[in-house]
Structure formats: C-alpha cells, structure tokens
Amino acid sequence: MTQNRICSLLGIRYPVIQAPMNWVSGAALAAAVSEAGGMGTLGPNSGADSIEPDAEKTAERMREQIQKVRSRTAKPFAVNVVVGFGEDLKYSQKIVDVLTEEKVPAAIVSVGRPDTYTETLKNAGIKVLHAISTARHAQKAQQAGVDAVICEGYEAGGHKGFTELTTFVLTPMVADAVDIPVVTGGGIGDARGVLAALALGADGIYMGSRFMATQESESHDNVKQAIVTAKDACTISLDKQFMIARDLNNTFAEQFREMRKSGATLEDLGKYLDEHGQYHAQHLGRAQDAEICCGQIAGLINDTPPAGELLRAVIADLENRFAELESRARQFTGSP
Ligand SMILES: Cc1cc2nc3c(=O)[nH]c(=O)nc-3n(C[C@H](O)[C@H](O)[C@H](O)COP(=O)(O)O)c2cc1C
C-alpha cells in the first residue's frame, strides 16, 4: 500500500494536523495530538498568561513551550510562524530564529509571503507547510519550495485574507494546481468532514475549532462552554480592515460590526480590540464581550473530550462512514 504523502512527509501515523490557535494551542494540546498519532501545533501565545509586547521575550516564551512539548512526547510536532508584514516581521523573525535553533520538526507558516522564511527553515531541516486561501497562492508557495500547502476555507475560524473560497471549492482547485501534498481545513470536525476532504483531493486534514473544545486546549472553560452551546449559524465573518476574522457571534462581534457600520476610525477599532481581544476571552474567560475566533463547525460541536480520544474517535468512525458512503454512491449511480 502506498503511504499517505502527509504521513511520510511528517513521520506521523494519521494525516491529521491540529491547527495553530492563538492563546489556545499550547504544549498540552500539541503533545496530546502528536502522541495520539496526528501532528500537534503550538500557536502564538502558547502557555502565556499575559500580553507580551517584546519580540525577544515572545520568542523565548515559544522556546519554553517547545521544550515542554518535548518533555511530553518524542513524536513530531509543529510550531506556527505568523509571518505578518512590516513591523510584524520582527516578531516572526525571532520565532524563526528559535525554531531553527531548536530544530523543530515542522513549521506551519501563515499570514504572509511564502518566500520570506521557507529557505531558512528548510536549511535547518524543518518541514514547511504554508497556509493559503487561493490556488494562485498555493502555486506561489510551491514555487517558493514549501513541502506542503494547507487550504484554509471560508468556514474556518480565525483570521484570513479577503477571498471567500469555501473548503468545498478551494480544496479541489488547489489539488489540481500543485503537485506537492495538500492539507485542507475549515469546517472539519468529524469523520464525515475527513472523508469529504479526501474526496476533494486532500492528502491530510487541518482542524482548529474542534480541537479548541478539548480538555487540553488552553481556552477558558467559559469559551469551551460557549462553543458547546453554540448551534447552527453561530459564527460571523468580521471585516477587520486588512483581514477578515471568523468569530463566534457574541456581543463583541455585534459591537464590532456596529462600529464598522457607523464608520469608527482605525484608532477606535484598535482600542476596542485592545480591550476586547482574544486574550480577554481565551485567558480571562470573557466569553460574551470579547473576541472568540471560531469556525462554523462550532454548530456541530457538543462536547469537550480529551484531544487524543477525539482523534481516535474520528479515525475509528472513518471505516463506518466510508462503508455508508460507498453504499450511498452505489444507490446514486444505481450500481448493485
Ligand atoms: C481560536 C482560533 C485562533 C486561531 N489563531 C491562529 C493563529 O494564531 N495562527 C494561524 O495561522 N491560524 C490561526 N487560526 C486558524 C486555524 O489555524 C485554522 O485555519 C482554522 O481553525 C481551521 O478551521 P476550523 O476552525 O474550521 O477547524 C485560529 C483559529 C481559531 C479558531
């Protein structure tokens, strides 16, 4: 049997990547997912209990988290590099320095050009997976030499570009456009989503929001509870001027939308975000009046299991779902 391309690239058992999440995906979550056979990822502000403006200190906090993951598992894991633009590059450069010194197994690079750090990371022996939201961006990433691309569909939680391609159309477009392995995410939370992703041409899957509602996630219990109680159309896409963010639709999101509608200045919006940002929800537990980045899949999340258990349950359910799919496909075509 030919091995799955993501599994052979990363040296993991299941091609399931826990997506990086600011203030949420720390060492405990990353290690639990890696230990269960997927790939865990450290996100920005992992393990942190305060906002740190200094780039050097931020990077050193990440080094501690890397060491914590290593103390919990010998399996491969990844670290997020949020590239950014302009001033932000000083933060990402310091993170990249730590990643190369620590020789982490993989980097998930997002929000920025693929030619910024790919060569440096690869020269240090680090596998590079680059997050994209259009087929053109995926081709650019391939040209820059990344090892795999990660599609982030419109359903996904968190910040992304202004394109609104859903996972359903983005994934096959990207699978057709590049030769390197394709991981896809945005709206995946169970075995049905995994099968759909495979049908669309993905080699691996990327889950963020589903892992946010697990025991090991660093989200405050109030946030986990808000996700579990959220139903149906419970998220909204907010125009953050330079990006869009998919968030849980709470009073923060309502107020932010009102401010945008009434023409609030960038300064006012920035001040509002400083006082109601993700730290206030994820760390302090203000689940109503602070920002909770969250994907549409929240409407299908009803529990907060241990992350390893969740991963094993998704894998265990695949066989049944596949048999069901096969039978439906036969009924569809009328074949016996
Ligand atoms: C709470 C939260 C925080 C996030 N923070 C980041 C981040 O810091 N860096 C990043 O590259 N992506 C971030 N994302 C996006 C995820 O990595 C991923 O693209 C997304 O969760 C996948 O869609 P899903 O939420 O439907 O699973 C975040 C998502 C969530 C839900």
Please explain how this structure is put together.
By secondary structure, the chain is of the alpha/beta class. It has 2 domains: 5-218, TIM Barrel (Alpha-Beta Barrel); 221-282, no CATH class. Helices cover 44% and strands 15% of the residues. The protein is built from 14 helices and 11 strands. It has helices at residues 5-10, 27-35, 55-72, 89-102, 118-123, 135-143, 167-177, 191-199, 209-212, 221-229, 251-261, 266-276, 278-282, 307-333; strands at 16-18, 40-42, 77-82, 106-110, 127-132, 148-152, 158-160, 182-185, 204-207, 235-239, 244-248. It has an 8-stranded parallel beta sheet. Strands 7-11-10 form a 3-stranded antiparallel beta sheet, covered by helices on one side. Helix 3 links the parallel strand 2 (40-42) and strand 3 (77-82). Helix 2 runs parallel beside helix 3 (55-72), helix 3 runs parallel beside helix 4 and helix 6 (135-143) packs parallel to helix 7. The longest helix has 27 residues, at 307-333. The two termini are 27 Å apart. 49% of the residues are buried. The mean pLDDT is 97. Flavin mononucleotide binds next to strand 3, strand 9 and helix 9. Flavin mononucleotide is lined by residues 19-22, 24, 43-44, 80, 82, 110, 131, 152, 155-158, 185-188, 206-210, 212, 293-295, 297.
